[in-house]
Design a protein that fits this description.
This protein is an alpha/beta fold. It has 2 domains: about 5-250, Type I PLP-dependent aspartate aminotransferase-like (Major domain) (Aspartate Aminotransferase, domain 2), CATH 3.40.640.10; about 255-385, Aspartate Aminotransferase, domain 1 (Alpha-Beta Complex), CATH 3.90.1150. The protein has helices spanning about 5-10, 40-45, 60-75, 85-95, 110-120, 165-175, 185-190, 225-235, 240-250, 255-275, 295-300, 315-325, 355-360, 375-385; strands at about 75-80, 100-105, 125-130, 145-150, 175-180, 200-205, 215-220, 280-285, 305-310, 330, 340, 365-370. The strands form 2 sheets. A 7-stranded mixed β-sheet has the order 1-7-6-5-4-2-3, sandwiched between helices. The longest helix is centred in the last third of the chain and has 19 residues, at about 255-275. The chain binds pyridoxal-5'-phosphate. Pyridoxal-5'-phosphate binds next to helix 4. It catalyses: O-succinyl-L-homoserine + hydrogen sulfide = L-homocysteine + succinate.
Length: about 400
């Protein structure tokens, strides 16, 4: 385990440089690799020697990204995938078989919900949903065929939080895997593997890139579990491209300073909006009014960059507010340098019924704000004039 600090690891972990002595990492755009002789080829294929064989398995750029992410999150090993959803799918598919059952937090990313509710049932894999704000309900849902607990904390867009140490102990007691989608927090704010999780998943598309440029996914865990992931991924082929790995490894160099600013800005926005006459509710993990404030403080370094609000006046109030924003982008994405407003009820969560939306804290007036890196005075001024 590295004794260096987060920022230093993110900047100084790098693959060996070539004879050109380039300071910044080059991109290795190659599908395959050559061997010195037939014996080296045999040894690499027999896993008797480390090295690159084919870029569906490994590439210097993906290896650098994985090494950094593993060091930053305290993982032994990792695997990179083309998208965050490929990371989620690969994790489910590598560990679940027909007859298995998953207990998942109800408020999962839309496509994860689709995997659980529409795709895995075809293969005989079932699931139950539990709520982040009702940790006491989780244990009763674990049955003899339960193989995995899956959780997103903080949740999207409800910004609910659950105690990961509590879930880690529950997973241990029942001999099941705890898998955490750590996308909203990043390794800078929350390190699930240190709290008892077996695997941590990231959509690198979000804060790891943080600039709205590229898609990517990463799975982190023990050598033993990542070997199982590898066994599935080498043959099913969800590999990340070297170009995207290069971008994401570069992005990690600035993750800490970006997250500090995202979090500072988001806390200022949340504080400004709380108590505003036109706002019914503000959800942000590091506001003392948040129902799981103490848990958030215990397991997160800061509160993250997402603030979810409920605007008075239902869907009309939310739309009027969003259409009044001049600087914020209206987009379904999040975790960009640019501030973004989303109306979950009519976009990301429009496929749910009203009752299902209310169960995960989405009202008609809910607006998810992804607070960017513009100057805080300009961010608040835009919100202020839109509410006026
Ligand atoms: C975006 C997102 C994903 C999916 O990631 P993609 O890179 O878009 O495939 C998964 N989980 C969470 C929490 C996300 O926000």
């Amino acid at each position: 385990m590295s004794t260096k600090n987060f920022e230093t690891i993110a900047i100084r972990t790098q693959t060996e440089r070539s004879q050109h002595k380039e300071h910044s990492a080059p991109i290795y755009m190659t599908s395959s690799y050559k061997f010195d002789d037939a014996e080296e080829m045999r040894a690499l294929f027999a896993n008797e020697k480390d090295g690159n064989v084919y870029s569906r398995y490994s590439n210097p750029n993906t290896s650098e990204l994985i090494e950094k992410m593993a060091l930053l999150e305290g993982a032994e090993s990792g695997w990179a995938t083309a998208t965050g959803m490929a990371a989620v799918f690969t994790t489910f598919a590598a560990f679940l078989k027909s007859g298995d059952h998953v207990v998942s937090s109800r408020s999962v990313f839309g496509s994860t919900h689709q995997l659980l509710s529409n795709i895995f049932p075809k293969w005989g894999i079932t699931y139950s949903y539990a709520d982040l704000d009702k940790p006491q309900d989780w244990e009763a849902l674990i049955g003899p065929n339960t193989r995995m607990l899956f959780v997103e904390t903080p949740s999207n867009p409800g910004i609910d939080v659950i105690d990961l140490e509590f879930l880690g102990n529950l997973a241990k007691k029942h001999g099941v895997l705890l898998v955490v989608d750590n996308c909203f927090a990043t390794p800078y704010l929350q390190q699930p593997l240190k709290l008892g999780a077996h695997l941590s998943i990231h959509s690198a598309t979000k804060y790891i890139d943080g600039q709205g440029r590229t898609l990517g996914g990463i799975i982190l865990g023990s050598q033993e579990l990542i070997a199982e992931i590898e066994g599935f991924a080498r043959h099913s082929g969800p590999a990340m491209s070297p170009f995207n790995a290069w971008i994401l490894s570069k992005s990690l160099e600035t993750l800490a300073v970006r997250m500090d600013r995202h979090c500072d800005n988001a806390l200022k926005v949340a504080t400004y909006l709380e108590g505003h006459a036109k706002i019914k509710l503000v959800k942000y993990p590091f506001l003392p009014s948040h129902p799981q404030y103490e848990i958030a403080k215990k397991q997160m370094r800061q509160g993250g960059g997402i603030v979810t609000i409920v605007v008075n006046g239902g869907v009309e109030g939310a739309r009027k507010f969003m259409d009044g924003l001049n600087m914020f982008s209206i987009s379904a994405n999040l975790a960009d340098t640019r501030s973004i407003a989303t109306h979950p009820a009519t976009s990301t969560h429009s496929k749910l019924t009203e009752a299902q939306r209310l169960e995960v804290g989405i009202e008609q007036g809910s607006v998810r704000l992804s607070i960017g890196l513009e100057h805080i005075d300009d961010i608040i001024a835009d919100i202020e004039q839109a509410l006026a």
